[in-house]
Write a structure and sequence with these properties.
Number of strands: 14
Shape: globular
Order of helices and strands: EHEHEHEHEEHHHHEHHEHEHEHEHHEHEE
CATH architecture of the domain at 5-176 and 396-439: 3-Layer(aba) Sandwich
Oligomer: single chain
Strand content: 5-15%
CATH topology of the domain at 5-176 and 396-439: Rossmann fold
Helix content: 25-40%
Structural class: alpha/beta
């Protein structure tokens, strides 16, 4: 990486005249924003070692902190100017592939539109559709932007042509590491805002506000753990049936863009109202706090207030921490917006209803009726259909590994190389106007 901010080239918001020459035979990969931490630095290093040309756009000081390789490019322009700037960058460096983490960030939404126009394939990282030990790397888009069909017959037919799921070992994941990397990233972001005047984080809170929320949450973690252990013991002792509703992060773009809810509070109100009006006794509702919730809002208090409002305080439980797997396994059902927790429940044969757009939301896998009906008769997922869906998902858009240990990152970088190598070389030509056109054939790997 170049030694100082001033030395790093900027992308000016203009489109240069397209190159009239054919791009080089090798592929040039442009990395946009990644996860907070070294993920894209490791991916970039691995790609360079394999002979790829690699470029990285930094949108803030956190991005720049974790990019220690050549060809780092600071973008200091506005969101409105970004599409033109990206088109110029693609042309100047003859980019053949773009990689990014999360396709719902404002800069990434604009980037995918530009790449679609220029026929540049976009490889999108995300937390794994199936967890743990898998991460998502999907061509074109993820979650609500995924090109995966919602046809169970298609998955059964595709799965029949694939070998069994390759064995893979579990990988370590460190919350401490994740937290430290997030702190370093956000500190670098805050102290470099002067240099990136147009940068706006995709999260709804300033990093300092989130930090204060985390301090409050961590301060009460011991008491929360005691309450959670007591609740789990009560659920086992009472033996009452319950439906689990795992909360998602209020900052999750899945909520804002791939559901009808304005936020988690909106979903919480709707779910608790439906439960109060339609759930038969002695069914209980267990609301599980997200393990990465920043504590800015007190969801425990809001849940208690809503339960009192609807007269169901004695039938609603709030679980602040702990492993969700054993709780999900014993649940009568799971309500989710579009969380990957849904696949965790489905793997255990637990009925799931998705209130938003989810890749796994289809007939035979999730409940297709209304939430009001789900409380009374959630049905059962078809194990064969879900197994076929899972097999195809792993083949098309999952790679082994994780983000928060050295072993996990090493496995991810291996998977990235394998995915790119499985794609045939791009055939790029220039038409009469100088605009780039491209065709990409993708060969699936198991």
């Amino acid at each position: 990486m170049l030694s100082s901010f001033a030395d790093v080239p900027d992308i000016t918001p203009k489109i240069a005249a397209p190159s009239s020459t054919l791009p080089p035979a090798r592929r040039n990969v442009l990395l946009l924003q990644g996860l907070m931490g070294p993920l894209f630095g490791r991916v970039g290093k691995a790609l360079r070692q394999q002979g790829y040309g690699v470029y990285k756009v930094n949108f803030n000081g956190g991005d720049r902190l974790f990019w220690r390789l050549p060809n780092g490019i600071d973008y200091r322009g506005s969101l409105a100017d970004w599409p033109d700037a990206l088109a110029r960058l693609i042309d100047e460096h003859q980019i053949t592939d773009v990689m990014l983490f999360g396709d719902c960030r404002a800069m990434h939404l604009g980037a995918t539109q530009v790449c679609r126009t220029l026929h540049i394939p976009v490889h999108v990282f995300e937390e794994g559709y199936i967890r743990p030990d898998w991460v998502t790397l999907e061509l074109g888009g993820v979650n609500g932007h995924s090109s995966l069909p919602r046809d169970p017959a298609w998955y059964r037919a595709q799965a029949a042509t694939l070998p069994p799921i390759p064995e893979h070992r579990q990988v370590a994941s460190s919350f401490r590491r994740r937290a430290l990397e997030a702190v370093a990233y956000n500190v670098a972001d805050v102290f470099s805002r002067w240099y990136y005047p147009h940068w706006a984080n995709h999260r709804p809170w300033h990093p300092l506000v989130e930090a204060m929320g985390w301090v409050r949450r961590l301060r009460g973690r011991k008491q929360a753990a005691v309450r959670a252990a007591a609740l789990v013991a009560q659920l086992e002792t009472r033996g009452d049936p319950y439906v689990l509703f795992p909360l998602q992060l209020d900052s999750d773009a899945q909520i804002r863009l791939h559901s009808s809810f304005a936020g988690i509070a909106d979903a919480l109100r709707m779910v608790m109202h439906s439960f109060a009006e339609n759930a038969p006794a002695p069914l209980r509702l267990v609301i599980k706090e997200h393990p990465l919730d920043n504590g800015v809002r007190d969801w425990r208090e809001e849940t208690a207030s809503l339960a009192a409002l609807h007269g169901i305080t004695d039938r609603v439980d709030y679980l602040e921490s702990g492993d969700m797997v054993p709780i999900a396994c014993k649940a009568k059902g799971m309500v989710t917006i579009n969380s990957t927790s849904g696949t965790l429940a489905l793997m255990q044969g637990v009925p799931v209803i998705a209130l938003g757009h989810a890749v796994y939301d289809m007939d035979g896998i999730t409940f297709q009726g209304s939430l009001d009906e789900f409380w009374r008769d959630p049905g059962k997922p078809d194990a064969e259909t879900f197994a076929a869906f899972r097999r195809v998902l792993i083949d098309r858009c999952l790679i082994p590994g994780g983000f928060f240990s050295e072993e996990a990152l090493a496995r991810v970088t291996e998977g990235v190389i394998a995915r790119l190598e499985a794609a045939s070389p791009k055939h790029i030509a220039t038409d009469g106007t100088g605009a780039l056109s491209a065709a990409l054939q993708v060969t699936k790997i198991s």
